Amino acid sequence: DVLIIGSGAAGLSAALNLPESCKVAMISKGRINDGSTWWAQGGIAAVMNNEDSIEQHVKDTLKAGAGLCHEESVEYTVRNSRPAIDWLIDQGVQFTREEADQDKYHLTKEGGHSQRRIIHSADATGVAVHSALIDQAEARENLTILTDHIAIDLVTQADRDSTKYRCTGAYIYSLSDDEVHLYQAKAVILATGGASKVYLYTSNPDGCSGDGIAMAWRAGCRVANMEFNQFHPTCLFHPEARTFLLTEALRGEGAHLLLPDGSRFMDRFHEMAELAPRDVVARAIDHEMKRLGCDCVYLDISHKPADFIQSHFPTVAAECLKYGIDITKEPIPVVPAAHYTCGGVMVDKHGQTDLPNLYAIGETSFTGLHGANRMASNSLLECIVYGTASARHITDRLDSIKQPEYQPEWDESRVTDSDEDVVISHNWDELRRFMWDYVGIVRTGKRLERANHRIKLLQKEIEEYYSNYKVGNDLIELRNLSDVAQLIIRSAMARKESRGLHYSLDFPNLKQFARDTILMPLNF
Ligand code: FAD
After folding, report:
1. CA distances, 18 to each of 44, 192, 347, 394 (Å)
2. Distance from the CA of 362 to the center of ligand 1, in angstroms?
3. Does 383 sit in the ligand 1 pocket, CB within 6 Å?
4. Which of 123, 328, 428, 460 has the lowest CB atom count within 10 Å?
5. Strands 187-190 and 2-5: what pairing?
6. For ligand 1, atom 39, which residue shows the shortest CA distance?
7. Is residue 477 within 6 Å of ligand 1 at its C-beta?
8. For residue 420, is pLDDT > 70?
C-alpha cells in the first residue's frame, strides 16, 4: 500500500504510525541506519515542564528564523512536541535523567533557546532514537525493510478521466541484483534527508545528496527556500577523517580559534569572539580562509589542563587521536561544513506535496518551520511530528485511493554502454568544490553567476551519461546533486538581501518584506 523512501527518524516515525493492517515497504539506499539521524548529538527540543511554554518555544523559533517561519507550522510542531517525546519514550528511547531526581529528564539549553528544553541521550541522541525505532520497525510484520535499494525517480500517472497526475510509485535500483525495479504504491513518502553533500565540506554522512528533493522537483513539485544552508563552524579537517563535528561546547569551555600563524582572529568579527552566534563564526572562518588562501584554521583547547579536556571531551579526544592529533597538546585543524538544508519540497501540515499521494517529511521537506535559519534541535522534532502527521493522513485516505494502474518497467534500451561504468569522480569533485567556492557561506552575484554557468554545463554532461550508461548509485547521486545544486543557485540568485543563513556581499541588508523563494517546476 505505502512505499517509504528513507529509514531515518522521519521515515521510521511514519512507518510505525501506520496501522498494522497496512502493507508498507521502507527502503534505504545503504544500511538501515544510514542518514543523519544516527549522527545527531545534541537532542530534541520540546516543551517539557511548567517553567517553559509553547508560546516561548514558538517565539524563540520565530526569532531564529529571521522573519520567514510560517507561524502556523511552528505552532503545530511545538504543540506536538510533548506528544512526540512521549511517543519516543513508548518506543523505548532512553533519555538521560536528572542525577538528583531520576523521575525527571535532564534538559539542556542550546543556541537560540531561551529555556532548558533539549531532551537528550547523553551526547548520542541520534543513536538512541534511531536504534529504538529500528528495533520496533524490525518487529513489525506489515513492514518490509529493504536496504541497498536506491530510488531513482518517482512514477506518476494521469487517470483516464483526468489530466491531473498522481504519484503511483518509484523506480528503484537494487544493489543486490544490479537491476531497476518498478515499485507501485497507493501512497509514497519521501524521507530521504538533506542535501548537504552538495558542498565540499559537510557534517553529513554519505548519501545526503538531496535525492528526495530532486525526485520531487523532476516529478513536478514546488521547492522552496533552498538558499538557506546551515553551516556548522567547526568540523575536523583531515584528509583521512570521516566528517566529524567538533561540538560548540569546546568553544564554550574556552577553546580559541587560531589562524595558521597561531594568532586569534574572532575578536575582529564579534564582541563575543569565539562565542559569537554560529553563522557569524562560520562566516569569519570562511573569510579568513579565503583571505589567506589556507585550507583550514585551528581550534585550540590545549591551554586547559589535560585531565579537564579528557573528562569533558572524551569522544572528541578519542576521535582526533585516531588521526594523530592529541588535543591536550596541540590545536585541531577545522573547517566550517554544510550541516542542514532548511529548504525542501513544499508540503502542508500533513506532509502532502503538490503531487497527489506523494508526501515529503523530515529534512527533505519544507514545512515552514525553520524559516531562514534552523534553531538547534528543532529538526528531529519536525521528523517525528510530520512523520506521524503523514501516517495519520494516509491512514484516513487509504481506502479511497485507487490502486495504481500497471506502469511500464524501467527502460534500459537507451543504454549504449551497458558493460562500462562511466568515471564520474571528477564531476563529483568539481561540483562540490564550486558549490563551496561560489555558493558557500558568503555569496556575491558574480560568484553565483559563475556557479550557474558551471552547473548548466555539468547538467548537460550528466544527462549524456544518463542516456548512455547503466545507472548505479554514483550516477544517481551525481544527477540528484546537480539538480539540487541548480535549485540552490537559482534560489540564492533570486534573494536580493542578506537574511538568516543567506549572506550576500552585494545585498548586505534586510529587505522590508520577508518572502519565501518558491521555485515552480516547468510542468506545474
Ligand atoms: P536521514 O536521517 O538523513 O535519513 C535519510 C534516509 O533516506 C536514509 O535511510 C537514506 O539511506 C535514505 N535515502 C536517501 N536517498 C535515498 C534514495 N535515493 N533511495 C533510498 N533511500 C534513500 N538535529 C536535531 O534535532 N538535534 C541534533 O542534535 C542534531 N545533531 C546533528 C548532528 C549531525 C552530525 C548531523 C549531520 C545532523 C544533526 N541534526 C540534529 C539534524 C538531524 O539529525 C537531521 O535533520 C535528521 O536526522 C534528518 O532525518 P531524516 O529522517 O529526514 O533523514
Report:
1. 23, 18, 19, 8
2. 8
3. yes
4. 460
5. parallel
6. 40
7. no
8. no
* Residue 9 in contact with ligand 1 by CB distance below 6 A: yes
The residue length of the chain stands at 524
CA of 65 relative to ligand 1 center, distance in Å:
20
Which amino acid, one-letter code, is at 467?
Answer: S
Question: Does the active-site annotation cover 374?
Answer: no
pLDDT score recorded for residue 340: 97
Could you read off the pLDDT of 325-370 as tens digits, one per residue? Answer: 999 999 999 999 999 999 999 999 999 999 999 999 999 999 999 9
CA-nearest of 225, 108, 186, 180 to 397 is 186
Sign of the CA dihedral with 287 first, then 506, 448, and 191 last: positive
Angle value at C-alpha 312, between 307 and 318, nearest 5 degrees: 80
Residue 477's contacts (CB-CB under 8 Å, 6 or more residues apart) are 197, 207, 209, 211
The model's confidence at residue 245, banded by pLDDT at 50, 70 and 90, is: confident
Nearest to 39 by CA among 124, 131, 110, 96: 124
Q: How far apart are CA 154 and CA 116, in angstroms?
A: 42
- The Cα–Cα gap between 309 and 431 comes to 38
Pairing between β-strand 344-346 and β-strand 365-366 as defined by DSSP bridges: parallel
Instruction: With beta carbons less than 8 A apart as the criterion, state whether 66 and 373 touch.
Output: yes
Binding site membership of 192 for ligand 1 (Cβ less than 6 Å)? yes
Query: Measured from the CB, is residue 210 less than 6 Å from ligand 1?
Result: no
Find how far residue 72's CA is from the centre of its chain.
22
Q: Which of 1, 5, 3 is nearest to 364 (CA)?
A: 5
**Does the beta carbon of 377 sit less than 6 angstroms from any atom of ligand 1?**
yes
Amino acid making up residue 394? I
Q: Residue 5: CB within 6 Å of ligand 1?
A: yes
Contact yes or no for 137/17 (Cβ under 8 A): no
Q: Which amino acid makes up residue 464?
A: E
Interface confidence, given as ipTM, is: 0.99
Cα separation, 260 vs 334, whole angstroms: 11
Q: With a cut of 90, say whether residue 314 has pLDDT above it.
A: no
Give the Å distance between the CA of 193 and the centre of ligand 1: 5
Question: Closest ligand 1 atom to the C-alpha of 377?
Answer: 25
Q: Which atom of ligand 1 is nearest to the CA of 120?
A: 28
Instruction: Report how far ligand 1's centroid is from the alpha carbon of 325 (Å).
Output: 28
Task: Name the closest-CA residue to atom 32, ligand 1.
Answer: 40
Averaged pLDDT for residues 109-123: 85
Q: Degrees (nearest 5) of the Cα angle 356, 359, 363?
A: 150
- Residue among 166, 222, 251, 278 flagged as catalytic: 278
SS3 364: helix
Q: Determine which residue's CA is closest to atom 29 belonging to ligand 1.
A: 40
> Nearest CA to 87 among 40, 132, 150, 31?
132
